[in-house]
Amino acid sequence: MEIDLNHAVTEVEKHAFCNGDCDKASCVCCLSSSSSSSSASNSSASPDSSSIYLELWHVCAGRLTSLPKKGNVVVYFPQGHLEQAASSSPFPPMDISTFDLPPQIFCRVVNVQLLANKENDEVYTQVTLLPQPELAGINLEGKELEGLGVDEEGGGGSPTKSTPHMFCKTLTASDTSTHGGFSVPRRAAEDCFPPLDYKQQRPSQELVAKDLHGVEWRFRHIYRGQPRRHLLTTGWSIFVSQKNLVSGDAVLFLRGEGGELRLGIRRAVRPRNGLPDSIIGNQNSYPNVLSLAANAVATKSMFHVFYSPRY
User: Which processes are annotated in GO (biological process) (predicted)?
Assistant: First the structure.
């Protein structure tokens, strides 16, 4: 499932792209003011659907994740990009002088896409950048940044606030057993799931929830036992098996204002690199890492960087 940040916004979006200080170890750092953002809805999805997908992506990414917006001016650090790529690839870090690139490159954000790795459900971002060499050497501070924040087609409206019903539970050994079910705290079940008819002897219903790829998962939600408790039974073991979930991983459920359910996961032990193998394969040598950026600077064209957030 591909989510376009340019056409839907949420209150959890932040103004900075680097998780930490702006130094050479960071690949991209946001400079622009983010007091404004696009409020246009995605033409291929309802506003509620876009909002809940965005919320789910950010929850899966973790509270430390922050991203730039379309139109923001950011600084791209080639040496930082090389060092990040070298941390997950066998080649040694190289100096950017090989490509005749400056130590920092001012760029405007052209596009931001929120994506999920189909191989392991790790979320990541593709940011499209356009070099802005004319900004090099300019002291950008205070109100001077506001004029660089969001271009006119971005809309400039306030972010659409979303307060979905959500719960997150760390899986126990029982939750991941092939013969068991998923035990849901009563308050979480009553807040996120459609109401059960407690007048029935064994209240139950079928739940349908979509993951970040748009895949529907069907679960049997039942209220039973002594003492009684909420359980997801039929369909749950299939989900655990296909997602390769283990005890300690976390599962998240969100319910949108229209009642639609979404679910995501956060792994206790994350892959060393959450990016798809197809992307990592394109960065298996240092020339591949910076050649696109060098070409973009030379031809005044766009290039992409990928960001795998940390919890």
Answer: auxin-activated signaling pathway; regulation of DNA-templated transcription
Q: Please report, as a single letter, which amino acid is at residue 37.
A: S
> Is residue 249 within 8 Å of residue 267, measured between CB atoms?
yes
Alpha-carbon distance 87 to 91, whole Å? 9
User: Could you say which of 2.40.330.10, 3.40.630.30, 1.10.390.10, 1.10.260.40 is the CATH number of the domain covering 165-255?
Assistant: 2.40.330.10
pTM equals 0.74
Q: How far apart are CA 183 and CA 167, in angstroms?
A: 13
In this structure, are residues 129 and 305 in contact, taking their beta carbons and an 8 Å threshold? yes
The angle, 0 to 180 degrees and rounded to 10, between the axes of the packed helices 286-299 and 78-87 is 160
Q: Does residue 17 carry a pLDDT above 70? A: no
Q: Which pLDDT tens digit goes with each residue over 277-307?
A: 666 655 555 566 788 888 999 999 999 998 8
> For residue range 109-126, what is the model confidence (pLDDT) as tens digits?
999 999 999 988 999 999
d(CA 63, CA 56) in angstroms, rounded, equals 12
Q: Would you kindly state where each structural domain of the chain is located, as residue ranges?
A: 3-162+272-307, 165-255
